From TrEMBL:
Keywords: NAD, Oxidoreductase. The keyword Oxidoreductase applies. The keyword NAD applies. It comes from Diatrype stigma. PANTHER family: 6-PHOSPHOGLUCONATE DEHYDROGENASE NADP-BINDING DOMAIN-CONTAINING PROTEIN-RELATED, OXIDOREDUCTASE GLYR1-RELATED. The active site is at K188. GO terms for molecular function: NAD binding; NADP binding; oxidoreductase activity. InterPro entries: 6-PGluconate_DH-like_C_sf, 6PGD_dom2, 6PGDH_NADP-bd, HIBADH-like_NADP-bd, HIBADH-related, HIBADH-related_NP60_sf, NAD(P)-bd_dom_sf. This is 6-phosphogluconate dehydrogenase. Residues 5-175 form the 6-phosphogluconate dehydrogenase NADP-binding domain. SUPFAM superfamilies: 6-phosphogluconate dehydrogenase C-terminal domain-like, NAD(P)-binding Rossmann-fold domains. Pfam families: NAD_binding_11, NAD_binding_2.
Length: 326
C-alpha cells in the first residue's frame, strides 16, 4: 500500500478537509504524496503546505494515480469528471471513488462508464478495474476533523483497496452497502432527509421560542440536554448566525447544494410512490431564502431566515446584524 499513488479531484468545503487528512496520512506512512486538482488550484494551497502535489487537469490526476477520489458539487460535474478520467487513457487497474452526493441513477451511470472503459482492456472478473461509491455524512467541520461517516458500495476488491484511507484517516466509521452503488446514494439521501427535516423543525421551534418570549437560549439548552450534541449543533447553526454568513463569508454547506440534495430526495420518493412532506416544506423555505437574500452566501440552515420573515421578524438575527456591522 505504501507505494500506491492516490489522487484527489475537488476541493470544495468538504473536499479540502478530507484531502488534507488524507495527505497527512500518506505522509505518515511514507507513501507518495497526494496528487490533486481543482477548478481553482489556489484552493489547494493548504495541501501544498502539507506536501501534496497539484495537477492541472483531471486527466493528469487520472494518468498518474492508481486510486482516484473525487468530491464534487453536483451530478453534471461528476459526469464530466468521469468522462475526463476515461479520456485520459487506460483505467485498467485503477479504482475510482466518488464521495459526492448525487442521484442514485447518476451513481449507476458513472459506475457503468468506468467499468466499461476498463473492461475493454482487462476482464472484469479479474478485479483489475473497478469503481466504488463512498458518499459521506457530516459537514465541513467534521471533514476537517476526520470524523465523517463513509457509506461505501462497489466491488469488494475496490472497497478493500480504499479501506486504509477511510476509517481513522478521513472518517470515524464506514457503513458497507455491498456491491450495488445506488444503495450508498440512497442511504446518503435518506440521511439528508433527516438532516433537512431536523433543520426545518429546529428553525420553527426557535422562531416559536422568540415569538412567545420563551427565548432561544433556554430552547437550545433543552435541545442539547434532551436530544444530544448533534441536534444541539444544528441549533447552534442558527443561534451563532452561521445560517446567514457575513457577506464576505462562506457557508458551511451552501444552500444551493442542499436544495439539490432535497430535490434528489423528493425525486427518489416520488419514483418509489411515497411523500416527503417535511422535505418539501424545507425545500420551499430554502428556495425562498435565496430569493429574499440573493446577493450573499447562505447556509443550508437558511430556512431559519425564511421562517423568521414569515413570522414578522427580520431575516437576520441581532447577532448577525451586529457581526455584519463590524
Amino acid at each position: 500500500m505504501a507505494a500506491t499513488q492516490v489522487g484527489w479531484i475537488g476541493l470544495g468545503s468538504m473536499g479540502i478537509g478530507m484531502s488534507k487528512n488524507l495527505q497527512k496520512y500518506l505522509s505518515s506512512v511514507s507513501a507518495p504524496p497526494l496528487i490533486y486538482t481543482n477548478r481553482t488550484l489556489s484552493r489547494g494551497e493548504p495541501l501544498d503546505a502539507l506536501g501534496a502535489v497539484s495537477a492541472q487537469t483531471v486527466g493528469d490526476v487520472a494518468k498518474k494515480s492508481e486510486i482516484i477520489f473525487s468530491c464534487v458539487s453536483n451530478d453534471a460535474v461528476l459526469q464530466q469528471v468521469a468522462d475526463e478520467i476515461i479520456a485520459s487513457g487506460s483505467v485498467s487497474g485503477k479504482v475510482y471513488v466518488d464521495c459526492s452526493t448525487v442521484h442514485p441513477d447518476t451513481s449507476v451511470a458513472v459506475a457503468k462508464k468506468i467499468s466499461e472503459a476498463g473492461a475493454e482492456f482487462v476482464a472484469e472478473e479479474l478485479g483489475a478495474n473497478a469503481s466504488t461509491k463512498a458518499p459521506v455524512f457530516g459537514a465541513a467541520p467534521m471533514a476537517e476533523a476526520g470524523k465523517l461517516i463513509f457509506v461505501t458500495a462497489g466491488p469488494a476488491t475496490a472497497t478493500a483497496k480504499i479501506a486504509p484511507y477511510l476509517s481513522g484517516v478521513m472518517g470515524r466509521s464506514v457503513i458497507d452497502m455491498g456491491a450495488e452503488v445506488s444503495k450508498s446514494s440512497l442511504l446518503k439521501i435518506a440521511g439528508n432527509i433527516c438532516v433537512v427535516s431536523f433543520m426545518e423543525v429546529i428553525s420553527e421551534a426557535h422562531v416559536f421560542a422568540e415569538k412567545t418570549g420563551l427565548g432561544s437560549a433556554i430552547l437550545e439548552q433543552m435541545l442539547g440536554d434532551m436530544f444530544g450534541p448533534v441536534v444541539e449543533s444544528y441549533s447552534k447553526r442558527l443561534t451563532t448566525g452561521a445560517y446567514a454568513p457575513a457577506p464576505d463569508g462562506k457557508a458551511g454547506f451552501d444552500v444551493a447544494l442542499a436544495i439539490k440534495d432535497a430535490r434528489h430526495a423528493l425525486n427518489c420518493a416520488e419514483a418509489a410512490g411515497t411523500k416527503l412532506e417535511v422535505s418539501q416544506v424545507a425545500l420551499k423555505n430554502m428556495e425562498k431564502a435565496q430569493s429574499l437574500v440573493p446577493d450573499r452566501p447562505l447556509d443550508s440552515s437558511s430556512m431559519y431566515g425564511t421562517i423568521r420573515s414569515e413570522a414578522g421578524l427580520d431575516f437576520f438575527t441581532d447577532l448577525c446584524k451586529k457581526r455584519d456591522s463590524t
